[in-house]
Amino acid sequence: xxxxxxxxxxxxxxxxxxxxxxxxxxxxxxxxxxxxxxxxxxxxxxxxxxxxxxxxxxxxxxxxxxxxxxxxxxxxxxxxxxxxxxxxxxxxxxxxxxxxxxxxxxxxxxxxxxxxxxxxxxxxxxxxxxxxxxxxxxxxxxxxxxxxxxxxxxxxxxxxxxxxxxxxxxxxxxxxxxxxxxxxxxxxxxxxxxxxxxxxxxxxxxxxxxxxxxxxxxxxxxxxxxxxxxxxxxxxxxxxxxxxxxxxxxxxxxxxxxxxxxxxxxxxxxxxxxxxxxxxxxxxxxxxxxxxxxxxxxxxxxxxxxxxxxxxxxxxxxxxxxxxxxxxxxxxxxxxxxxxxxxxxxxxxxxxxxxxxxxxxxxxxxxxxxxxxxxxxxxxxxxxxxxxxxxxxxxxxxxxxxxxxxxxxxxxxxxxxxxxxxxxxxxxxxxxxxxxxxxxxxxxxxxxxxxxxxxxx
Length: 457
Fold this sequence. Notes:
By secondary structure, the chain is mostly helical. Helix content is 67%, strand content 0%.
């Protein structure tokens, strides 16, 4: 049987060839030395892109889900699909030979799909960048309020706007101009270490608490409906799929198998961190008493708490450039700039992106409702886009579905797409409910509205 050639040749890899001849493109690739990230650096980048401020919200998520056992089981079940979709994205990226989600989607579904996907990536990335800056400001607010007093708000050089602008410009902006993500692997390793410290602190505080909570942590919920409460938070917490394809493109030994190993190990690390923090934070404060930001619950004035607060800011310093990279690349794709972009344009777009996100984060008092609505897109990146790409790639290699394996892949693609639609609906309904609640009662995922009001107003 003849090998497929022509325009569709770049959509086919060795796995999909229906002949015995070697794929010449893969042979040439093996002959060319690649530069990029090793396995360890890739793991650091994935973990750094995944673990974030959602870690501080996980203890409350365990509380809202009604128990430790249900939270862990639900997280494990979803994690299987979350990891699978990461692998799907890497495989589809290999098939299409693309380095971004929007370009991969365009290869499967055409130019209009590129516009839709690129818009989603750009909007979601910008919302995430706003959130990172807000969190940075919140952490320094807490430190200054603790050691300087509440009058810091009225001292111009200690005000939130000045401190946030100065720290972000010093620590974030220089990391945002790089052309490739692999350069950020060293910064990502620092971000992973800071998160490890926060995890250890929460474990330590649980085992050294003086009094047991009045209402101890539960294993199982009183109402099975409560389990749905943790699903949106899991999606927020594990959303690294937008960065998966650029990270895969930067691997030195680029292959779906190598990326699968890195993705599985990264998700195991993230699962361990989220679970430990969720259990220990929930057990420390008890049912109904867990704050939305677990660090807000520790009222003692100690250097170990202060370091944890600062380390959360440092973590956001290292994650912002990764997300900006994806958003900037999506903007270039919208304007048809798929190849190499000159340095001047890249610097200009980066500066505009950074300045806009900084100004909005400083000047707009509360963007949490918008951020929560944008959270609907996280389920699309995790489930819907990978499901659609798996569906299309399977049909491209076996349009008649002669193989049982391909039939199963089609069923799985439909299932995860439907799962993504369901999760998006749950997140959207909860976001609308949050919009209709008074500010003091909104269970924030990001924004820390109450913290800012308590400190400075």
